Fold this protein.
Amino acid sequence: MNRCTAVFFSLGALLLFTVSAAAQERAGKWEVEFHGGGMLASNPTGGTASLPDPGTAFTTLSGRPSRRESSWYFGDGALLLNQVNTALHVAQITPLDPVLTSSAARQGGGTFGLRVSREINPRFTAELSVDFGRGRLEISDGALSAIEASRASFIPAFTGLFATGPSQTPTVTSISTIRNGTGYQVFTVGAVDINVTKPGKIAPFATVGGGLISNIGDTPSVTLAGKYQLLLGGIAPLSETDTVNVRYSAPGHRFVGVIGGGVKYAVSRRSGVRLDVRVNLSPNTIDTIVDANPVVLTQTPGVVLIAPTTPSIQFSTIPSVAQSSLTGPPIAGFRTFAASGVQRQVSVTGGWFWRFGGSPAAGRSASPDTRPRGSSFDDARRAGRWEVEFHGGGMLANKPSGGTANLPGPGAPFTTALGSASRRESSWYFGDGAVLLNQVSAAFRLTQKITPLDPVLNASVARQGGSSFGVRVSREINPRFTAELTVDYSRGRLEMSDDVLSAIEASRASFISTFTVLFATGPSLTPTVTSTSDIHNREGRQIFTVGAVDINLTKPGKLTPFATLGGGLMSNLGDTPSVTLAGKYQFVLGNLIPISETDSVTVRYSIPGQAFVGVIGGGLKYAVSPRSGVRVDVRAHLSKNAIDTLVDANPAAMTSTPAFPLVSPTTPSIQVSNNPSVGQSTLSVPIAGFQTFAGSGVQRQVSVTAGWFWRF
């Protein structure tokens, strides 16, 4: 039993221990059940496959036919590359096509939930169940093997291709970033149980019904990034990047039909065990989507490289003269597989149910009710001490700012090729790297300086308000106290503030102006400086599972104010926000020496999957009738602020020849190098998962809800 399931059942036990005080009451027609178990899923393969159309045909400078492709990893791009490599008798690429024309699969996993049912007659019982399924979407082992084969084959395919030409030793890389095993499900189902035999101590039943599946969290994805760079004749640089993202889409909600059955065993007149097997049937709607983003370096002196085959591939750094074959249009959201068929998920659960209410037990006469009549509370007491409530509303969150800020220490000092002092840095965007860059700019008397990301790194993301909805089951202990169990789903997400987004944009933009002006002070030709940002904002959801006690502030009546005190578990679902800044500068010294460096920084936020939450609040209950009414509830959820800020930095420099270091004539200095043999670049130290802000203090989330309750 996992931790979340254990807490769920513990809170249920806390609520339901009071049933012993009512052992002498008559058995009723209502039941509440808590259960857990497992769920197995089928892997439907039906669907419609499609790949992007062949690239637009064009003629190379040598008069050979070629096509404009968006990627070499799949489709017509892989076909063209393999046609050329076959003609040259070199290694071929393994296309991603089988991965793109299939889907991810839902895996089995644990499940737990709550069921409320009401006997209609001895044959039929109506029920409502809410189940949380931990079965995740997952890329299969076969698909992962195919992805790795495609990633690995990119390198020998282009290494072999360039080896047939006049280029010097090429640098070919191919990396994969895989996010697998993501997402959960919530099943909200209404059904009818049909007793197969006359109800007794053992009662077999069949179940039929329907409801809603809600998919929570992200879906799997994989990104392949292939890059080749080389120098033609030791002079002309060539660099192209092929980035492909494969992702899977699943609708947020869809209909599910349910059929199954089970057995109920009455341990006593008021409680027992239920074993349940059911098949959840829903449309298979897990589609496969591909994005592709080809990037070709434009550089001087210009160069065109053409494969001596038919068809051919053309590489070019001067689009005004000749276009590269890897210049097909970027692809965004192309659906390569539209799933069809039926998704079957079989759940097997066991649980404990409690039966209650005021109706007489079968075969027995009700004892005379000797309690005085005349008050609505007396009528409510006769109606029953149990309540089930469904509610909705909103949740507001504060923005705690407490915490400990920290930045990576100053870079290790070293001496440049000119004998000046410098430091090894991880990034120009923040910390000591930004300090060093601005010191050098100030020494040149330049007004342009980089805007550091430090304020972003030394703060945390904030939880926003959002709608919420949930279910509450409660049991009156005595006229003063009522025990309750509440499960709430909140749509309030983590979000970077407008100030943080503005600071990120200021840092991104200042990278371009700072390096453009800085390189203008040296002997380089016109530099190419870029700085891009990839922002993922407004992420994550929450589930609150809380046990509490309601304390009536007045004698119970038609209108009853109450206070609430309790605690439980807060579960954080989905990803957290993140931002990646990628800065790059490249140029050629003296029309001979190419230099290219990339500064990539990712800022992300971490939060625990589960945390304790305390609850304090209150509200009003208005009895519309002895058996139902309206409840308005305001409560504060108090938890530890544990949202931390992390930074990753991945500097990269192109290695090429002729080797040469470029050093700023300042103190301190910056060294930019295209070969470690003649001196290491200042930008040269990676960082992984450095915690720049550790959150502290209390996170307060105030919920305001209204709902309808039934008493029985």
The longest helix spans residues 141-163.
